[in-house]
Amino acid sequence: MAVSDPIADMLTRVRNAIMVKHESVTVPSSKMALAIARILKEEGFVADYEVLKGTPQRSIKVHLRYVGRKEPIIRGLKRVSKPGMRIYVKHDRIPRIYGSMGVAILSTPAGVMTGQQARLKTVGGEVLCYIW
Question: Domains of the chain by range and CATH?
Answer without folding.
Answer: 6-72 (3.30.1370.30), 77-131 (3.30.1490.10)
